[in-house]
Amino acid sequence: MQHSENHDAVEQLLARYHAVCGEIAGAASNAGRDKSAVALVAVTKTYDGEAIAPVLEAGHRIFGENRVQEAAGKWPALRAHYPDIELHLIGPLQSNKAAEAVALFDCIESIDRDKIAMAVAREMKKQGRTPKLFVQVNTGDEAQKAGVATGDTVAFVERCRNEHGLTIDGLMCIPPVDENPGPHFALLANLAEQAGVPQLSMGMSADYETAIGFGATHVRVGSAIFGAR
Ligand SMILES: *Cc1c(COP(=O)(O)O)cnc(C)c1O
Fold this sequence. Notes:
- This protein is 47% helix and 17% strand.
- It has nine helices and nine strands.
- The chain has helices spanning 2-30, 49-57, 68-81, 98-104, 114-127, 153-162, 182-195, 208-213, 223-226; strands at 39-43, 62-65, 86-89, 107-111, 132-138, 148-149, 170-173, 199-201, 218-221.
- Strands 1, 2, 3, 4, 5, 6, 7, 8 and 9 form a nine-stranded parallel beta sheet that branches.
- Helix 4 (98-104) crosses helix 5 (114-127) and helix 6 (153-162) runs parallel beside helix 7 (182-195).
- The chain starts with a helix and ends with a helix.
């Protein structure tokens, strides 16, 4: 009984995963883009290694976590079996966690102030690691939300390059929950163009197809794959 319930849950998980992959391909095609230009970052926060395993076995390798400590507790063991995992930090980073984040993640999507840029630059030098770096932009300029203000984004990317010696590969945003996300995705794409940044991490379970229409190169999808948290 226990076994077959678990089997059903795995089947449903894989069905949701393949459905999301299909939606991504469809949205890319509708936008006249190649599906290989859109990476699915499967967001695994709150889910443990056992819950994630079926998606790894299906061949998926790009994952996102929003807390350094939680990621440190589960990904080293999974990496031992799947060394080609690409792990993204998508949540806020404190400078006292910079060393751990640089050691653990292949992409840090939440660079949003000089103090963090400096701490990450120092650790990259020290550890000889070069995670990809995205700047998080607070496209709604919401008081409580992480991210660089829209008006500071281009200057901040330039400071990351010129003062902190960092290569910024992309911009990331989380639109306000109660607003139409389209204008936020358009704004992020526009800022990326102004700043000369090639990649765009935008779109979550509710709006990743819209984001692909606005040029997302990375969509961060959690609950549509793994279920409600
Ligand atoms: C949790 C989270 C996601 C995924 O959200 P879903 O709505 O479950 O797809 C994406 N991005 C960030 C930054 C998150 O924290």
